[in-house]
């Protein structure tokens, strides 16, 4: 075998080895994570619509457990500077007429009609069949149109180089990111980190399309609302007690 042929074989072997090594690495939300779901026997389907119910009556002022859990699960450093990524933030609201105060977490609302997807010029912002809104960091060009379009100010821009990332939560400098509803956990049949960590069970995760799910039963029993319901975005996150 001549040198050129040997080099060709070596390159092919190298590429084959790299492909095998990358088989277990998350390349982009909605790509590798869909494969995980299929491997678990639960292909992504529009028959399911994942969402959250957040009960402000149960959410304790000063409690930050959902934020801490989100940071741990997704590899965020927990900074609160304008340049830091925050996938969940606690918001304090006050009713002017009654003086009533409520504390609640706000994150990506996973709209059925997401403005971020509409304005994205590359298709990096997209919605999975099961209603989860994600960003593909490989096609995100950092234009930040989606950040301007989001009425919930739920997206962050990664300004700095990231290290020690988690393989199933791909992030990258120069990209936009936001709450993924812990898609990596959902595709393994788990609940979201925020719902799991909430000490008062103020956050309920589940399938909004299943009338027998806990979240659907709770929504049927109590009055709920959506943030900026006037925009008719049909968000996957609903709130009680507002």
Describe this structure in words.
The chain has a single domain (26-240), classed as Alpha-Beta Plaits (2-Layer Sandwich). The protein has 8 helices and 10 strands. The model is unreliable at 1-40 (pLDDT under 50). 27% of the residues lie in helices and 17% in strands. The chain is an alpha+beta fold. It has helices at residues 3-22, 32-39, 65-74, 115-119, 145-149, 183-186, 193-197, 214-221, and strands at residues 50-55, 88-94, 101-107, 125-127, 133-135, 156-157, 176-177, 203-207, 224-225, 237-240. The protein has a 4-stranded mixed beta sheet.
Tell me the domain tally.
1
Q: Give me the secondary-structure category.
A: alpha+beta
Q: How much beta, percentage-wise?
A: 15-25%
CATH fold node name = Alpha-Beta Plaits
What is the CATH C-level name?
A: Alpha Beta
Q: Name the shape in a single word.
A: globular
Short structural summary:
With 242 residues, the chain is α+β, with helices and mostly antiparallel strands.
What descriptive keywords fit this protein?
242 residues; alpha+beta; Alpha-Beta Plaits; four-stranded mixed β-sheet; two-stranded antiparallel ribbon; 8 helices; 10 strands; disordered N terminus
């Amino acid at each position: 075998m001549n040198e050129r042929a040997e080099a060709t074989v070596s390159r092919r072997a190298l590429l084959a080895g790299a492909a095998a090594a990358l088989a277990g690495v998350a390349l982009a939300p909605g790509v590798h994570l869909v494969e995980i779901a299929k491997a678990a026997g639960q292909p992504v389907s529009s028959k399911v619509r994942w969402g959250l119910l957040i009960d402000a009556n149960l959410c304790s002022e000063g409690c930050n457990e959902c934020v801490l859990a989100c940071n741990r699960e997704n590899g965020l450093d927990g900074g609160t500077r304008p340049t830091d990524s925050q996938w969940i933030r606690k918001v304090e609201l006050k009713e002017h007429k009654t003086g009533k105060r409520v504390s609640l977490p706000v994150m990506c609302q996973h709209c059925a009609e997401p403005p971020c997807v509409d304005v994205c010029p590359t298709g990096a912002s997209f919605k999975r069949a099961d209603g989860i809104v994600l960003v593909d960091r490989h096609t995100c060009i950092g234009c930040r149109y989606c950040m301007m379009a989001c009425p919930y100010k739920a997206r962050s821009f990664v300004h700095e180089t990231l290290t020690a990332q988690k393989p199933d939560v791909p992030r990258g400098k120069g990209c936009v990111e936001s709450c993924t509803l812990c898609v990596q956990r959902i595709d393994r049949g788990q609940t979201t980190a925020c719902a799991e960590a909430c000490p008062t069970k103020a956050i309920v995760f589940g399938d909004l399309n299943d009338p027998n799910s806990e979240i659907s039963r709770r929504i049927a029993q109590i009055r709920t609302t959506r943030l900026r319901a006037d925009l008719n975005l049909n968000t996957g996150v609903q709130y009680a007690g507002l």
